Amino acid sequence: MPDTTTEERPSLHLTRTFATSPERVWRAWTQTEAMKHWIAPSANGAGSVIATELDVRVGGSFHLAFTAGNGERHDAHGVYQEVDAPRKLSFTWYWKSTPERESLVTITLKAVPGGTDFDFVHERFFDAAARDRHVGGWNTWFDSLERHLGASA
User: Fold this and answer.
1) CATH number of 16's domain
2) Residue-wise pLDDT tens digits, 59-81
3) Range of the domain at 23
4) How would you class 153 by CB atoms within 10 Å of its CB: exposed for 0-12, middle for 13-18, buried for 19 or more?
């Protein structure tokens, strides 16, 4: 008899509206040089990029390495699952320290008057604590992304 008990894994859903085109938001997520400008800063402004390697195609991989405000190094990896420029980007996400805890990120961009609606879903977290640890990190990065998009307009 098959096991019909399925435990739903935690997810995170965040939205923003950026005052720029979907194409510019897309480039910030898919071009190495653009991503280097916003991906590492922490809430206190500390942190630095060590590596940003992107092979943005279905089946391509990425590697992001950065230091946090406390100087701790973090390495994130993943594989692109869907690439539909400039509308949708989906990729797996895992930390070098816990590769068995692979999750899934999906970003959807939609042109709206005056900018881009940004819909971000990070799902299949190992547990609620892992999800909760990502909330602040993602929001800090999105604040940095917003500053980058404004500065590079």
Assistant:
1) 3.30.530.20
2) 999 999 998 777 889 899 999 99
3) 12-151
4) exposed
